[in-house]
Amino acid sequence: xxxxxxxxxxxxxxxxxxxxVVVVMALLTLLPHVGLxxxxxxxxxxxxxxxxxxxxxxxxxxxxxxMTVAVVTAWGVGAFSTALAIExxxxxxxxxxxxxxAAAFVAGALMAMPxxxxxxxxxxxxxxxxxxxxTVAANNxxxxxxxxxxxxxxxxxIEFLGFSFxxxxxxxxxxxxxxxxxxxxxxxxxxxxxxxxxxxxxxxEELARSIGVSTTWLKILALAIGGIFAGAAxxxxxxxxxxxxxxxxxxxxxxxxxxxxxxxxxxxxxGPLVGAAVAYYLPELxxxxxxxxxxxxxxxLGLMVIFLPTGILGGLDSAWKRWQRRRRQPQPSxxxxxxxxxxx
Amino acid sequence: MQEFFQQLVNGVVIGGVYALIAIGVTLVYxxxxxxxxxxGQVVTVGGFAAWSAVSxxxxxxxxxxxxxxxxxxxxxxMERVGFRFTRANPINGFILSLAIIFVLEGLLVERYGDxxxxxxxxxxxxxxxxxxxxxxxxxxxVGVAAVLTLALMVALKRTKVGRATRAYAEDxxxxxxxxxxxxxxxxxxxxxxxxxxxxxxxxxxxxFGVTVTLGAAFVVKAxxxxxxxxxxxxxxxxxxxxxxxxxxxxxxxxxxxxxxDFFGYVLVIIVLMVRPSGLFxxxxxxxx
Lengths: 344, 288
Hints:
heterodimer, A: mainly alpha, B: 11 helices, globular
């Protein structure tokens, strides 16, 4: 899979990777003003929250190559710590957000602990088992299962900076801001020293270890950082839907998160956003019943894995690069051979 | 003491079914490094095939065979339509298996709805061993599971195809160089694993009935069993299946029944903490 591209002549400006994120987010601020119905604004907010949770999977998977099903558990930990903090201590939004991020960080790190001994496929299966085990435990604990096992209600809107985010549109802007901050953080993380360490694990773990990168702890850190994103998503989810239930954080939701990341583009920073839009907007636009949506998800994800494993944004990116290369080298002397080698 | 033996029998019954499902998982992993979570849907398909057969008047014994055939064909179809294309990259195969779960579960809901489907117990009556009462039906389930598992183990040890399978699991390129038809072997393993899972679905139908989510619950157990036994090891899957079945029944009888599933999960985590590649020599965890 190693791609032998030549080193760039001069390093790209540090701000370049941030531009697409800022542009897309700026365009998205216009979305509520194009005459969307209430229902569509609601869907957009849900999409944004799913995108946040998908960042929780994106960070460990795209950066460090660690696939995990338990990200959904970190999401649940975030949602439940918010709901419980409101119920028992009546905390406000900011302490709740920080608390759930911290709790999800710890949860993410704890769930990554089996990686100390197991690796590779064993670890993926263990995350699946852990997600199921936590669901069983949470179902049996009356604090988290709620009265009669029906979940917990969160009956207050987000109060932040002296403003109440009770309406859908205000919630849209708040979530958009949160997603923007997350996406910018992810861009920064990718370029940082830590991000390069993560990439070394993804590309060749043995080699990374041989030059002194402590891969095990970095993998745990990657999964825990993913937990922070998922935990923050949990806070917004709990506030916005005002009712949470263990069943909302099961394996089906984990599969949907994987779908979002894979469909959007495994290496594309805006992938979670695109993937969430495909997963949540498209079924709504074509008005299918939920069961058909499930089948559709499966078919789309399956076709995507087989025919376009790099996802929508990855596919667009390589199409763009191919087009540019063709434009630069119009004469097809040795070009076909070269471009074939470069594209594989 | 009577309670103890009763639970022992129940544990062996459920453990036998776990082993049957886990064998497909572990064989497929051993050959292709694929984590196939859609294997659980094969169990469900088998269960519903048996239900349809029994409800049209076919005797249960034949329904088990039909379920095995349908399960085998379903599993083979998954390989031909999907997993064939992801062999080079097993993590894509894992994602694909999640996709297949959605498709098959959705199709089964379209066809059968999401209610519990049951049949009348095919074998009535119980046998008493001392104070312990065991229904013939449960004995039948254990018997079928044991015969199928042992037959597969013998086939792997003694037959030419079995040796080829073990050789391929050990070292694919060398096995291919020795003239093993690797493509055919992988298809065969999907077929056999699917057939065992389909038969397990029919057995589960006779014990508890089937719903569309039956397989999803059992496939996680199958992976727990395979991990404990060591991914790729059929003997390991058989013994670990019994261990998980016993841990669950004793845990639910003596500790708490609402935590049943939890005991198997705890068992696998403890085992993997001590022996990261399972109790028996399984495949090494590959790089994902």
